[in-house]
Amino acid sequence: MKNNRNHCWSTGFSLPGGEPPHHAPSLLRRHAKAWTPTSWLGALLACLLFTCTQPATYAQSSLDRIHRRNGTDRGKITAISSQEVTISKGGVATNVPAEEIRRIQFAGEPAELNQARLAAASGQYQEAQQILRGIDSSSISRDGIRRDFVSQDIQFYNALCAAKLALSGQGSIEQAGQQVADFYTRNRKSYHIPALFELWGDLLLGAEKFEEARSRYSMLGKARSPIYKMRSALLIGESYQEENKHAEALIEFEKVLQSDRKSTRLNSSHTDISRMPSS
Known about the structure:
By secondary structure, this protein is of the alpha+beta class. Helices cover 51% and strands 11% of the residues. It is built from eleven helices and five strands. It has helices at 23-30, 37-53, 55-58, 111-121, 125-133, 144-167, 173-186, 193-206, 210-220, 226-242, 246-258; strands spanning 64-68, 71-80, 84-89, 92-97, 101-105. A five-stranded antiparallel beta sheet has the order 4-3-2-1-5, with no helix packed on it. Helix 10 (226-242) runs antiparallel to helix 11. The two termini are 20 Å apart.
């Protein structure tokens, strides 16, 4: 069963900030013998000023950040749906299609959340799970809307990790499927929904529930984006192929080939037509 496709729905992570400086104290020790008491006082004041001003270089951003395929939008996210995310900057609102989003960092989110995203993106799902479990709910923004956005992201990455581990034989497919289903029930307006449908279908395919898997993949095809429609047809075709129904598989692959040639990216995992069989 081929269920370990590398879906990179969230890639291109960047850790916020850097390490605080450690060189100033060593400089003080190195030149201590040559300095007068007045020099010491001036140096210490300079060191304190330097240290106090450093956190601004690696503190969390006060803006939301949407990381697209080819750039980053900064501003305040005002709405999220399964189709797009709305971000406002300087009073100008922009709708970013879900298929263009690699990841979102929310202003004031726990630092551990981005660490978990990074771990998941590199395939370290157990590590990501441990990081997510350690997030203190009291550290999430008190802003009602922002708190909901961050909570959704935590829930999604928990479901993602459970599903990926189950598909690799390190967990229960049934339990992971229930976690994915729970996320869908509670968060139907999340921009993660398209990724969730594919993940859900993969779990059902892993359990050899072919018709149910195709049902989830077909839900992906109901999105407005032609990219998702092509992706849906490809996944359904692959499910028929897994079931040794090659004639049905070829019908689905033909739908992909007949789709708009301009939409060459089938989804954020960069799957392309070359994956399909030639016959």
